[in-house]
Amino acid sequence: MHIPDLNLLVALNILLEEGSVAGAARRMNLSAPAMSRTLTRIRDVLNDPILVRSGRGLVPTPRALELREQVRGVVELAHGVFTQSQDSDLRSLDRTFSIRANDVFFGVYGGALRQQMALEMPKASLRVVPEGYTDDAALSEGRIDLAIGATRPAGADIKVQKLFTCPFVGLAREGHPIFDQPITAQRFVSYDHISVSRRGRARGPIDTQLAEIGLERRVSFTTPTFYSAIFALANADLILPLMPQLLLKTLEPMGLRLRAFVLPITLQPVEITQAWHPRLDNDHAHRWLRRTLKTFCDNTVA
Length: 302
Fold this sequence. Notes:
Mean pLDDT: 86
Structural class: alpha/beta
Number of helices: 9
CATH class of the largest domain: Alpha Beta
Order of helices and strands: HHHEEHEHEEEEHEHEHEEEH
Strand content: 15-25%
Number of domains: 3
CATH architecture of the largest domain: 3-Layer(aba) Sandwich
Low-confidence stretches: none
Strand order of the largest sheet: 4-3-5-12-6
Radius of gyration: 24 Å
């Protein structure tokens, strides 16, 4: 029985991930014609077209979809066998880590993580993936290495570790009139608010709390990121009511004249976790990444 070249499995895995001969060629450092010939060999071995034309792109056949997880697993297993000794030397590891997290987390920890990587894993690089609108199978499918946030990824097999608990404060410009008197719930809702939501939502837990005491706020600005909200405060009488307290330490270097205040209503802090697929549990470099981030978080909140 003829056993196909392992390189064909690697090529098939990349083709299925990219959905493009040109994209796969770039990742494998091949010319487009060479990649096309490799795809032809794969089609011959599997007796299936694997990728077929649809519009301007290529889509996998049902047979390719059936094989995708199996092929990925075999390639990752082989990678572990052949690179185990290399991975033990982090300084020689050439690898890109894809991490899904929001701007708050990388605003606080991104610089320290890059510096530590430069010292211990100088050939590795980071790729920050923005949070999506819904949970998906990015961890299971290997599209990201680590997911960091308040929402736990779906999947019973996904491993999760708590990083820290994040409370909230309010934020406004230094000369905002809200600071002229004690900040009560009534005065809190008398100024326009900013809502930070990647889904574009203007309402949330804060509105539930206000409704319980017969109050309602006006949200006049909604933005997907905290940093865009922060810059919007500089010259306006807006209030950012759900500012992660952890992010305050990044404001001073920006030179922004902003001031935090204790919220006049009770909101529960959120638990921030890091999550990964079990196949990376014993990966030497991935363990270094998880351990380093956990250490940073422990030192910050200590």
